[in-house]
Design the sequence.
């Protein structure tokens, strides 16, 4: 055998084992393009999929019919950085549901049926940088303390909703807000 083949064999074995495990823990109706991304977008889901890998970092659930997020859902996913729930059927998010994710940086709840954002919805999600709440046509109430603790939030989208007023106090608690 040629000498270079001896050092190439371990690399090939390692690569094949990595590619073999990709998608191994992927929910049946979803795609997992890399070990830390689960893409369940546009799958007609009416609830959150089961068997999501615990080390998921990007969870894409857009364009489904998901009506609610269980209050303990994010407790298990401590590595989650990116959560896309846009264009679903969410009408209410229980206070504290999103507060357990300490690493969440991006959250898209746009194009849903949210009616209110009560105090404590996001808890102390200090790492959250971008929050999309736009295109919620029934969103008519945002608590003055809804964004309390979001000290890193830079971008907040609230366009195209039913808000007629928004207390300045809700935004004054966002020291990093730019957009």
Sequence:
């Amino acid at each position: 055998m040629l000498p270079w083949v001896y050092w190439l064999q371990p690399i090939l074995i390692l690569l094949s084992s990595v590619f073999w495990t990709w998608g191994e823990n992927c929910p049946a109706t979803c795609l997992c393009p890399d070990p830390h991304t689960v893409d369940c977008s546009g799958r007609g889901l009416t609830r959150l999929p089961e068997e999501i890998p615990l080390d998921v970092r990007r969870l894409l659930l857009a364009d489904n019919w998901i009506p609610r997020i269980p209050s303990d859902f994010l407790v298990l996913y401590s590595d989650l950085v990116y959560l896309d729930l846009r264009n679903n059927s969410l009408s209410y998010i229980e206070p504290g549901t999103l507060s357990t994710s300490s690493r969440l940086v991006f959250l898209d709840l746009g194009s849903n049926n949210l009616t209110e954002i009560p105090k404590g919805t996001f808890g102390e999600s200090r790492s959250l940088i971008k929050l999309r709440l736009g295109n919620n046509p029934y969103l008519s109430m945002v608590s003055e303390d809804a964004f309390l603790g979001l000290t890193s939030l830079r971008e907040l989208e609230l366009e195209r909703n039913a808000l007629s007023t928004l207390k300045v106090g809700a935004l004054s608690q966002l020291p990093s807000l730019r957009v």
Q: What stands out?
A: The longest helix spans residues 3-21.
